[in-house]
Amino acid sequence: MPWQTLCAEKGARLRVAPVDDSGQVLFDEYEKLLGPKTRLVSIVHVWNTLGTVVPVKKMVEAAHRHGAHAVSHMRVDMQALNCDFYVFLGHKVFAPTGIGVVYGRSEVVDNMPPWQGGGNMIQDVTFEKTIYQPPPQRFEAGTGNIADAIGPGAAIDYLDRVGIVNVSRHEHMLLTYDTAAHHRHCKGKG
Question: Could you tell me the pTM of the whole model?
Answer without folding.
Answer: 0.57
